[in-house]
Fold these 2 entries.
Entry 1:
Amino acid sequence: MDILKLATTIIDRNHSYGIDDPFYILDLNQVKQKYQNWIENLPQIIPHYAVKCNDDENILNVLKNCGTGFDCASKNEIEKILKLYVDPSRIIFAHTVKQVSHLKFAAEKGVEKMTFDTEAELQKIKQFHPKAKVVLRIRFDAAKSLFELGSKFGAEPKMEARRLVKICKELELNLIGVSFHVGSGTVDYEVFGHAIDEVREIFDYAKNYGYELHLVDIGGGFMGHDDKLLKNYAYFINSAIERNFNDENIKIIAEPGQYFAISAMSIVTQIVLKKYSQNGHVHYFINDGVYGSFRSIYSYNQFVNVTVIKKSKIHENSSKIAEQKLSTIWGCTCSSRDKIIENIMMNEVEIGDWLIFNNMGAYSTVLSTDFNGFARGKMYYLGMKVGRGKLASI
Ligand SMILES: *Cc1c(COP(=O)(O)O)cnc(C)c1O
């Protein structure tokens, strides 16, 4: 079964019940394939999936069974992963700014690995989770990324990072490694190599304080819309590891989010209305939007393809060939900011037709709201569910 076939089946079945809501299709085989691709390109690096990117329980279960770890940023994310019977040692609490209650929760549940980038956070860790295995997050920005993170997180790698190593020692904390995140969604592949070189320097510096660091965490940022891209990152990562950490007992992890999720999910929506501007520009209104699952569309629209499922009455009775027209796709709420895609050339479609937006698995459903009363659509699955799930059925 492919996505188009499954979507058509769901649309027809829903139609017979009078249901015309948008829905999602999540292809779990895609997630497995992504893992396979990861192992082939970066065999020495254990991915710790960034739960925030798409917290669908079936994605988490598939990755758990593949043997990945998890990057959690909050108490709820940690709880969600522990409920899947994942050992706490497979979790990294990768938020450098932790609420005290979340920190206490981590301590209580035996989640030990966590990142930090300030002295204040170290003091908090010392007080509420003194046995934690702390990982120093440094700032190392890609030249360009879809979401830059350096302005908010990461210690400056020269002076400040070294000062923090010293403070770890003074507080008698168990410093185990260094992490970075170059920014989400980058094709600056080389930056990973330079960042790993920087990590090596901090490893050497930490020896002065008696620390034998052994964890390198290269963060996230990997594009996932095209499997072939991973080998570009791998080239720079693997060679940097080879030149810096050759034959040492080092564990290397990463925190990919969108890499695993983006291509796994499609959003299926219906054209609720079409109207024309005076100049012939076509405006479509669909039943999901940027307050729903299209919140990150501005960053990702370059990767999104739209497939049409013809269901309109007009089309059934006409042999007219669709014409390419300059179009705008609006979301379903009353906000004028709820605009999904502007000024694109697309084949003209009709009210009642359905659009499948692919590559929508990253930072989509997790950000959706029910603003204006439009609730999140239902999730359907392709591929075998694992764990507590059953075979995909619709
Ligand atoms: C968001 C985030 C990730 C995942 O980033 P992607 O670009 O989706 O791979 C990993 N680590 C941290 C600390 C993050 O904040």
Note: Residues 190-207 form the longest helix (18 residues).
Entry 2:
Amino acid sequence: MQRNHPITGWKDKVLFTPGPLTTSRTVKQAMLRDLGSRDVEFIRLVEEIRRRLLELGGVAKGDYEAIIMQGSGTFTLEAVVSSTIPPEGKLLVIVSGAYGRRIAQIARVLKIDTTALNFPEDRKPDLREIETALAADDAITHIAVVHCETTTGIINPIRAIGAMVKQSGRRLFVDAMSSFGAVPLNLAECGIDYLVTSANKCIEGVPGFGIVLAKREALLETEGFARSLSLDLLAQWKGLDAKGQFRFTPPTHTLLAFHQALIELEREGGVEARAARYQANHAALVAGMQKMGFQEYLRPEDQGHIITSFHYPDHPNFFIDEFYRRLNEKDYVIYPGKVSDADCFRIGTIGRISVADVRGLLAAIRETLAEMEIVLS
Ligand SMILES: *Cc1c(COP(=O)(O)O)cnc(C)c1O
């Protein structure tokens, strides 16, 4: 598929990545205006975005609060970790990939007492081990877990983990960066105190900010905990709630795009319809890749519809850099692997792409294999 930019003539590539993603032309066009950060229209726009975000999480204002934080998703993870754990608190991070490890790293940099509960990367974590870890250490006050571990594509059993954490009386913090908007989820039912996502993943906006959906009661207990001025979550919320304003320059254009993306999500039929489109993308991808002789890293029962890791094919002519470059020249962008114990590349099935785009990618991969003289299976 060719998409040429109306002014520059540049041909857009189709992104099969975990973000930034391919976005609709109308989302990009929504940015073609300038808004002042104290403008009433801008303040209304931010309010409307925050209202729609709570709706997507299945929760009501007052029970939960939506907070927007400038920066990429990681900045927002850092805002939650640095602002919500008390000085004497302790964080347990459930780790089964690079993104879980990153949360633990954020906490250690902040000198927060942290334990990483490490699991193999190729399957869902063992719930009994989590339960045992919670029971074994009274010092733990907060638990962090990644919803879709984008390293592999596993979607973790968040409801079961939430029930355990809730029963043990701890606070739960979920990195739902790559799943929110594409996996139906009710925060209250899952016992989530803080959920983090970002503008440029499954809501299909452009990069520039992250989002926290916070349980109000938990948030209000965090006065004085912040270890950073610009990433102070409570202060950010107070600014937004009192005057609808950001403390520091907001990403006005990104917010305009995001508002349009939320409208397009609603028009598509909401989270369920979006999940169905991504599932169709994923099914078409896996069927086509298997037919060519590629093998997925995960077993089907552990694999989600967001992103899929594939093993490098066992062939002397396969070099990942060349494979990537040749696909890129055909306007298809895939993603390098992040699994620690296997050579993999990743293909995302999220963003403004359809089964037709997946078929285009599969054809480009077939062509690339022929160019590299690779015959599989
Ligand atoms: C993308 C992603 C992040 C990081 O987001 P950045 O915007 O690159 O900072 C964190 N966690 C998960 C699970 C992700 O998929």
Note: The pocket of pyridoxal-5'-phosphate is lined by residues 18-19, 72-74, 99, 146, 150, 175, 177-178, 198 (CB under 6 Å).
